[in-house]
Amino acid sequence: MISVEEIVNRLREQGERLTLQRRMVLDVLCQEGDHLSVHHVQQQLAEQGRDLTETTIYRVLQWLKERGIVSQTDLGQSGVVYQVIGLRLHHHLICLNCHQEIELDDQVMEALRALLRRDYHFEPRMDHMAFFGLCQVCQDYHSE
Amino acid sequence: MISVEEIVNRLREQGERLTLQRRMVLDVLCQEGDHLSVHHVQQQLAEQGRDLTETTIYRVLQWLKERGIVSQTDLGQSGVVYQVIGLRLHHHLICLNCHQEIELDDQVMEALRALLRRDYHFEPRMDHMAFFGLCQVCQDYHSE
DNA sequence: CTACATGCAAATCCTTTGCATCCAC
DNA sequence: GTGGATGCAAAGGATTTGCATGTAG
């Protein structure tokens, strides 16, 4: 489990500047955990009476992403979402037809990761992927 | 190898309406093959003295995508590109740091495709993927 | 003939930028 | 004190929409 304290300490050790706004965004990310959009982060904070500009949220999330703290995922119709890396590691299968989102265990990525490391000397950052295709129901329907 | 004729015939058999504009977009996609953006398609056509509105290009590409004729890929910094599926099948590794793009043989996707089909009854449409991470040079640099 | 596709202009959505002010270290 | 972060307003870019007109089947 990952806590805000843990992340803050890690960043401080790296000599990063910890502002109130950065802590606020991290708070929400750790509380909510899943699939937070920029707008969603702002809403959550507003409900707690803590206001942040969208601009700042974009900048903080970008900053966290560059430091490997959060992942950024484009879920297609559901937009772009952010998530603390390591907090409930998983991925998604998204149906192009009915837009159903199926959750995918991280384990399925291991073989591909290993292959990319070994054969391409590439260090993948596949922390929250979205794969598109057709779910079983829509496959059957399409082939009728 | 896939030709415009072949695609047009396939669509006609499905009862799709074949307009001049749709043929024009298909022409460019089959001629150029690789990584065509909406803007790029428009430019290519303009050079041949054949003008199309961006709106129409968006609509045609969307239409082709829904019918499984073209793939749509977000390459990150390099934007969104389209490509005829089956025409030089490949994928990309993209460095988050230096933005280098490494080409990836389609073969590496087979195991994951098989797993998604078998364990999730999901028919993946992974025809032109982009995976992000760090290339060897940037890994070494980052760890200094 | 008719339903569907296109062109144009305008709207919309998401994200970034410039610049003055503020604050963490 | 000072460099970097924030807030605000405005710009930017990509994509979508409404509606009149055109055209494939």
What characteristics describe this protein?
homodimer; 144 residues; alpha+beta; three-stranded mixed β-sheet; 6 helices; globular; DNA-binding
SSE layout:
The structure is a homodimer of 144-residue chains.
Chain A: H1 4-13, H2 20-32, H3 38-47, H4 54-66, E1 70-74, E2 80-84, E3 90-95, E4 101-105, H5 110-120, E5 123-124, E6 130-134, H6 136-142
Parallel strand pairs in A: 3-6
Antiparallel strand pairs in A: 1-2, 3-4
Helix pairs in contact in A: 3-4
The first copy, chain A, binds a DNA duplex (25 and 25 nucleotides) through residues 17-22, 38-39, 52-56, 58-60, 79-80.
Sketch the major β-sheet of chain A.
3 strands, mixed
* Count of DSSP-assigned helices of chain A: 6
Q: Can you write the helix and strand succession of chain A as a string?
A: HHHHEEEEHEEH
Radius of gyration of CA atoms of chain A, rounded to a whole number: 17 Å
Amino- and carboxy-terminal Cα gap of chain A:
46 Å
Strand order of the largest sheet of chain A: 4-3-6
- Structural class by helix and strand composition of chain A: alpha+beta
Biggest chain contact: A-B, 26 and 27 residues
Spans of chain A of at least 5 consecutive residues whose pLDDT stays below 50 are none
Tally of DSSP β-strands of chain A: 6
How much of the sequence of chain A is in beta strands? 15-25%
**Shape annotation of chain A:** globular
What does the oligomeric state look like here? homodimer
The average pLDDT score of chain A comes to 94
Helical proportion of chain A, percent range: 40-55%
